[in-house]
């Protein structure tokens, strides 16, 4: 081992997690534990219609028969589902505030601290935000402006009351309640999340985004997002996530469903920065998420872009079902694991329609003791004539105690399919660092430059403002990875 | 400008430099020649600040400053440039981004303001033209997919952009065809000035036909065993290095 690699060890320090604070706020929290009564209580608190309670109970009963998946390349102690509280909301949210003026200033302050001012005049002009705090949505901005375009953007709990037909028609239509262990759990206990409906032919006039925040101790966050893009519509949506710095592990099990009808286009971007745990692997969020998009209409398009820097454990495979002829699915991912973080992430592209195309670009970065796995499935069904897939999956290692793994699966049942797969694993070498330093570039800057170069293909898919954020986040997350 | 005194260095347990002395004054071009494994590359890397070697004795001064305590980036800012024998690839980082980061990091270190984007671009374009390179290379990744010759040319381009005081060029002539060798030599000569110095580390005479050295040294067994004028290089070319051991 060279002198440099030795230094790398010594230089691995604490990263700074800026979002690690706790908001001290009175909360209405259900006691830990899960049974049908808890689900009934939760549903009653939200004054839900019977069909939704039924949906939850069916999911719960299915979940009881299921086993937690263990096929992922992840190691973590068994999760005690009875020790988690399944509902927590700030008391001040008991009566849903009608406007921002009625929202508890402490909550507003939380978001200001996180760099997300909710006063419309202070915000990024082109972005509407829904903010979810533990189990409830706190505020949604620019609702009026969006309503003028016919766009519905509101908490899903509100959509259940206001647009029950839409929710009932689409909820669980992409990710069925019994899809997998975590999706079943979410279907049973989901609390809030965003609902988006873009009417026929409408190009959403602004970026939509949801900001998820876990605050309360011992709670899980089970949000549910549903986006429906009617024929010929277009929407770009971004979600961000943070949580306080705690010694315990908290569970986040979300479900996201996207439906794109004829010629509709959904661009869904995620910047995930849940608390990753400390440098010894203590604490951090367990992030078990099911995200799936259904390109139901012909020539529809769904693009997932994710930048995953947080969470102790990430288990996440945003997928596309390319049902409509000529539909297009894309997945662009940057996942970073530092210290003891582990990520098993990738995508599924299911080609059903004719002339469907999918692109997968995955960039995994591992530093410290981080473990990074790409897991991807490309399935071409018999019906999918002339399907095309291109997969590129690259791993970058920093230091010599981390790991990167690739698990690509392909299932081709139509001989006209063309599927390409490229994979590389590289290391930020001592030579690269020395080279940059002999040109005058300091070690940290050199690392961040090399990593950004590695991620460039993905960052260019993010909306502009967020691409800059993502670069900064990556830099902070790598603090101390080398020099 | 550069004073090396009694330099001893090892890599792991292997002693490579064993009491090397060398003084390079401003305005001079020195060639250090020697057989494979004599410690030529080690010398250049140590001057640039490589941590692959451990200096066990002796010292290196650059313009009177103790060089051995400075990290590589500070040596670069002080005006030392190493042209690599095997330039490194940095995928996805364009040559333009890399050069700009390098120039601005050095300027910042010296307390100078960053260059305006337009001024920088004009400056780089000028140097690209001088090296007869395709300007499109600026948007390609650093040495990414470059041929051996292109990489060497890129080293000299970086040097022309950075305008160092001391140019240490490690086997820059290897892997170059004759046309590329001429362009590279012109690049080196373009920076020759009374205020700058050059240290050419090379196995062959070839480059010295185009970049005339003032002094030639033979490195063997980790020490300078013979020094002389340009004639010494030609003598080595004819007789090889064997006769030195016999002497």
Automatic annotation (TrEMBL), chain A:
Residues annotated as domain SUF system FeS cluster assembly SufBD N-terminal: 131-204
SUPFAM superfamilies registered for this protein in UniProt: Stabilizer of iron transporter SufD
A single BP term in Gene Ontology: iron-sulfur cluster assembly
The organism's place on the tree of life at top rank: Bacteria
InterPro entries the record matches: Fe-S_cluster_assembly_SufBD (IPR055346), SUF_FeS_clus_asmbl_SufB (IPR010231), SUF_FeS_clus_asmbl_SufBD_core (IPR000825), SUF_FeS_clus_asmbl_SufBD_sf (IPR037284), SufBD_N (IPR045595)
Coiled-coil annotated spans: none
Chain ranges of the SUF system FeS cluster assembly SufBD core domain: 212-454
Listed Pfam families: SUFBD_core (PF01458), SufBD_N (PF19295)
Family, per entry: Belongs to the iron-sulfur cluster assembly SufBD family.
PANTHER family in alphabetical order: FES CLUSTER ASSEMBLY PROTEIN SUF, UPF0051 PROTEIN ABCI8, CHLOROPLASTIC-RELATED
Designated name of the protein: Iron-regulated ABC transporter membrane component SufB
TrEMBL record, chain B:
Keywords recorded for this protein, A-Z: ATP-binding, Nucleotide-binding
PROSITE patterns: ABC_TRANSPORTER_1, ABC_TRANSPORTER_2
Segments forming domain ABC transporter: 2-246
An example molecular function term from Gene Ontology annotations: ATP binding
Keyword ATP-binding: yes
SMART domains for the chain: AAA (SM00382)
Gene3D superfamilies in alphabetical order: P-loop containing nucleotide triphosphate hydrolases
SUPFAM superfamilies xref list: P-loop containing nucleoside triphosphate hydrolases
Signal peptide range in chain numbering: none
Family indicated by similarity: Belongs to the ABC transporter superfamily. Ycf16 family.
NCBIfam families, alphabetized: sufC
Protein name: Iron-regulated ABC transporter ATPase subunit SufC
